[in-house]
Specification:
Elements: H1 11-18, H2 25-36, H3 51-60, E1 67-73, E2 79-84, E3 90-97, E4 102-105, E5 109-111, H4 120-124, E6 126-129, H5 132-145, E7 154-158, H6 168-179, E8 191-195, H7 199-208, E9 213-217, H8 223-229, H9 232-235, H10 238-247, E10 256-262, H11 270-279, E11 285-291, H12 305-317, E12 322-324, H13 338-352
Parallel strand pairs: 4-7, 7-8, 8-9, 9-10, 10-11, 11-12
Antiparallel strand pairs: 1-2, 2-3, 3-4, 5-6
Bound molecules: iron/sulfur cluster.
């Protein structure tokens, strides 16, 4: 069994993990604040703890629950990190620095079972869910790596590998640590859950975290068209999530973002824009158009920038806020799942190479 780690645990879980050391409540809280508020990831940096306690912590727990295996830095400053988990699986996190804010794109699963045809992660299949601790640690590690103080404006998007609502128990563990004012202290309003729409779980999530923004990965203007590219539509019809969002619109504290990937000749006509408007009627909304990032083996192509502009203009004419997602980090293959795929290829090659001698 691997050595347990404290990094990423909630306060109650931390109390439980530290129980064998019989610490006083204030000492547990000190460790909690060092990890999350001061963002120090090793006991040697927790300078107001006694030397004996620091040494005990160092010996008794692992301080690298996820190992940074690979990074890819883009010319625009985005950085993709590939972590190796204790069981050998790998997961990606992306850091996107902008003048006004820093955004972290976190993963919730290793791979994904839904196999959307335009998604690199989906092509890999599902490996396992991340724990709440592993979700928090991605953020913690990155905050420490970029020396971001608690005063820095931070956005978190659950848009990395996996479908977050398929791993709701871990999200329920992670979000209280991430948003705790004594913990990592990210404002709930600065967090976005991106989901393809699993209606019953989405309802539970909104009930628990009404201030977290919801982005629905709609991508197609009709349920029939969606079914061709997103097999999950069969099991989780998007109409159910749309009805839910109509029903809960008073409870939501923000407009829903509809994510829409722009695929050449597939869903990028002006008729598609009108159908999209119709499908989402009755929901306070905005649209985020996403240029498709081609990946090896995919026959799909991105819409031309002109098509994307025309599509956006059509929606704006109806009074909607429309953003076109900047495809950041393209020079480092920074679309979801790419670094992971490269690492897998490298591993396979290394494993397949005949041993010398
Ligand atoms: S787009 Fe999201 S839900 Fe679809 S396969 Fe990729 S990670 Fe899974």
């Amino acid at each position: 069994m691997s050595t347990p780690s404290l990094l990423g645990l909630s306060l109650p879980a931390l109390e439980e993990a530290l129980a064998p050391l019989r610490l006083k409540a204030f000492q547990v809280r000190q460790i909690y604040r060092w990890m999350y508020n001061a963002r120090r990831l090793h006991p040697r940096e927790m300078t107001n703890l006694s030397k004996t306690l620091r040494e005990t912590l160092e010996k008794s727990y692992s301080w690298e629950p996820l190992l940074l295996e690979k990074t890819a830095l883009s010319q625009d400053g985005s950085e993709k990190m590939l972590f190796r988990l204790p069981d050998g699986h790998r997961v990606e996190t992306v850091y996107i620095p902008e003048k006004e804010r820093k955004t972290f794109c976190l993963s919730t699963q290793v791979g994904c079972k839904f196999r959307c045809r335009f998604c690199h992660t989906g092509a890999m299949g599902f490996r396992r869910n991340l724990t709440g601790q592993e979700i928090v640690f991605q953020l913690l590690f990155a905050l420490n790596r970029y020396s971001l103080p608690p005063t820095e404006r931070i956005n978190i998007v659950f848009m990395g590998m996996g479908e977050p609502l398929e791993n709701l128990p871990a999200l329920k563990e992670a979000l209280p640590v991430i948003t705790d004012p004594e913990g990592i202290a990210v404002s709930t309003r600065r967090i976005t859950l991106s989901t393809l729409g699993i209606a019953d779980k989405l309802e539970e999530f909104i009930r628990l975290f009404p201030a977290v923004k919801v982005a629905l990965s709609l991508h197609f203007p009709t349920p029939e068209g969606r079914l061709l590219y997103m097999p999950a539509q069969r099991v989780h019809p998007v109409e159910e999530s749309l009805d839910l969002l109509r029903r809960l619109k008073e409870r939501l504290r923000h407009r829903v973002t509809f994510e829409y990937i722009m695929l050449r000749g597939v869903n990028d006509s002006l008729e598609d824009a009108l159908a999209l408007e119709k499908l989402t009627r009755g929901i306070p909304r905005k649209f985020n158009l996403i240029p498709f990032n081609p990946f090896p083996g995919s026959p799909l192509l991105p819409s031309s920038p002109e098509k994307v502009d025309l599509f956006a203009e059509r929606l704006r004419k109806s009074g909607f806020v429309v953003t076109v997602r900047e495809s950041r980090g393209q020079d480092v293959q920074a679309s979801c799942g790419n670094l992971f795929a490269l690492a897998e290829e490298t591993t396979t090659l290394e494993e397949e190479r005949p041993k010398e001698g």
